[in-house]
Structure formats: structure tokens, C-alpha cells
UniProtKB/TrEMBL annotation:
Gene3D superfamilies: Type I PLP-dependent aspartate aminotransferase-like (Major domain) (3.40.640.10), Winged helix-like DNA-binding domain superfamily/Winged helix DNA-binding domain (1.10.10.10). This is PLP-dependent aminotransferase family protein. Keywords: Aminotransferase, DNA-binding, Pyridoxal phosphate, Transcription, Transcription regulation, Transferase. CDD domains: AAT_like (cd00609). PROSITE patterns: HTH_GNTR (PS50949). Residues 29-97 form the HTH gntR-type domain. It comes from Paraburkholderia pallida.
Amino acid sequence: MTRNDPVDPDNTAPEWAETWASALQGGSGPRYLRLVDFIERAVAEGMLVPGERVPPQRSLAALLGVDLTTVTRGFNEARRRVLIEARGPLGTFIAAPRAELERRVDLSMNIPPPPAGIDTDALLREGLSRLLLRSDADLLMTYHVGGGSAADCAAGAKWLEPMLGKIDPARVAVCPGAQAALAALILAFTEPGEGVLSEPLVYPGLPHALAQLGRRLETVATDAEGMLPDALEAACRLHGARLLYLNPTLQNPTATTMPETRRRALLEVAARCGLRIVEDDPYWRFAPDAPPPLARLAPAQVCYVSTLSKTLSPGLRTAFLALPDAASRTRVLAALRSFSLMAAPLTNALALQWIEDGTAARIFEGVRAEAQARQRMAAQTLGPAACENAGIHLWYALPSYWQARELAAAASTEGLAVAPSTAFEQGLGTTGNTANAIRISLGATGERTRLQAALRRLSALLASDRSTPAQVLV
């Protein structure tokens, strides 16, 4: 009997049945996607090997107790992901790994992974169809109110509720991405030449925006819990700064979360010094038992930024600003209009519809489940230095024989892109902090099997001591 004999009429199971019998067990979401996830997982774990013939669709449908359409749809998606390949009359087989001569594997771009158990193509088609049925197409293709309409801001307030509790939609502004929101806040609350305070390892978009807008970045020393309150007070007095940037939950790049006691201590300093805080908080929803945001503890002091780019998809280009009051909202929107009149109406309307009808929450749950699976994979592959956390990236401290910049260059020759600590460093020499690490982002690679192969290559590279160059023989 071969591995692909059909289900025997005498109830004698074919050899492949034991492997495939659990294909739909566990997990969530549509059954055809659970079948695809099983194939992907079985290939990664060696249960299915390249060149192995897969069962006939009718036989597999009978074994799993589903209709043929479910299996056919699953196989079509598996072919799209290059997990299986059809060989004409010979049948369908597990595909060989794709040659890595194509584009490199990106472990440097911090974007959310594809949501587990979610058919994104179907959601987009359905969402856009419903949007066009409910909306006037002409209104979706013309200018809209900067900062969002009342309905837009109400949807933004709904998205922000898990973080901030119920807030007045009049305090919310809808922006075309977090970077635009940050630029508008800088323009609104600082003057040219002024210093803005931040931690010394910081999201690279901040120093870039400050440099383009003619402001300075001044760094404040940190410890394992985040920015030091005493150092913040000293920096305020030294630089006369009026604006502080913090990313306190699953911080980019270090993936650390500032405890509530430290948050409250920094708020006390900011109140004494008349310091306004920009809280960039894209990852709060990923963190289990996350402390309350600074903006929830002191809403009058904090401008809160939450983007869908890190939780749902960068393509939506929608971010929400929660501002202390109507006056600060007016001021920020005036700054925003100087370079961006509005968020793109079509994608913005889709995002807000998804928030209102619950689709956004469902997508996020899929993204979070996939991120957790990828964090487990990274921890298992890279070892103790890659402790599992809840976000979409991890911070990997390098062994002494590797320096971050050299490791990133060596990884590039292996077809991998990682972000060295030098890409995030600002004024480390003046604060006493040191960093020799890489940020590994887990979402940009669509297929989990390809990510695992990339992590294995990275693990082998990290384990190789290249402090002494190998002799080249020709």
C-alpha cells in the first residue's frame, strides 16, 4: 500500500492517515486555513518532507470529515504559500524550500505578522464591498475634515478605550500614521533649535523627524526599568526642554516594559518641570498585564499616540492621537495641516469600519496569536538570549566576539537583514549606557517556515566566533 492509497472501503487506514488525522485539531479560524497551518507546521517540524506526496483531496476530506471544497481551498492556499506543488498526473507533493537566491529575509522591519486564522484577502474584499454599499463613492474620493469627522473620532475613542478607558471623542484626532502625528506634535509644542528629551535607545523615526524640523535630541540616562527620574529632572534644567518622548510598553528596540512605579515617578518630575510628554504606545495591546499608559495616569500631561500600523497593518496608515484638551487638539491639527491635509479617505474609512464592526479586534487577535507563536519559535531557535516576550520584535544581546554592526553585515551576506543597536543609539557615550545587540523583527516574513529557516541561519551565525578571521586558501 502506498502513502496515497485512497481510504480503504474495509476501513483499513492508509499509511498517511496517522500523520494527517490531526490536521484540523487545535487552533482557530476557518478549517481550510487550519489545514494550511498544519502543513506549514508539519514541514517545519519534519513530519512532512520535501518531495513527499500529499494525500488525494477526496481521501483527505473523508478522513477529516469535511467537504471537498474545504480541502481544495486549503490546498490552493498552500500552493500560494509554496508549501505544496502540483506535478500534473503524478499528483501533488510537498514543495522543496525556495532557493534563497531571491530577496533576503527581512528581520529588520517592525511590522505585524499575518494574522493567524484570518483570510485577509477575503476580509479586504468583504470590507471594501460593504464600505462601497454603505458610503457614497464620491465622498471617499474627495477632501475630508483634517483630524477626522465626529464619527471618525468616536471610532478612534473606541479603539483607545482598552488603553485609556472611556474618553471624550473631542480629544481624539485621526492622523495619517504615527510618524505624521509625531511630527505634528513636535511642530506644535517646540520651537526651532529646541531640545526634545528621550531615552538613548530610541525609535529611529524620532531623531529623523527632529533633524528635519530643526530640533535637537537630548538623551536621558536609563536603567533596567527605563528612564531615571533624577536624570530627567537634571536634563530638564540643563536643556530647558518642554517635550519628552517615551515608548514605555514593549519599547522599541529593547522590548522592555516600564513598571507603573517608574511611570508615576516620571510623571511627578514632568509636572514639576512643566514638561509635556509624548507617549508613543503602539505595542500596549500585545503586552499581558501591561501597566496603565502614562496618558491614563495623567491625561492632562500626556499626548498619546496609537497606530494601527503595528497592530493590524501598515497599509491602513491610520493612527489616533488622544490629546489633553480641545485647545491642544486645535494646535496639533494646525501643525499637521502644514504637511498633511488628511488621512487617505478610502483606507481610513475601511479601518474605522473595521473598528466599529469588530473586525479590527478579530484581526488583532489573529496578529497577537501569530506573534506569540513566532516569539516561541525564536526563543526555541535562538536560545536563552532570546527570551520570549509578547511583542513583534525581540532584543538580542550579542556575545562578546560579535559587535552589532559587524553582525548585521555578516547576516546580510547570509541573506538576512537585522537591525543593529547602532541604528537606535543616540548619545550613549554621555549617559553611561552601552549597547551591543540586535533587534530581530518577526513579522515582515510572511511564511512561518521561511522565518524559522532564517532564525536557524541566524542562530548558526551567532554561534560562530569570527573574532579570528579564517585563513583563505585558493
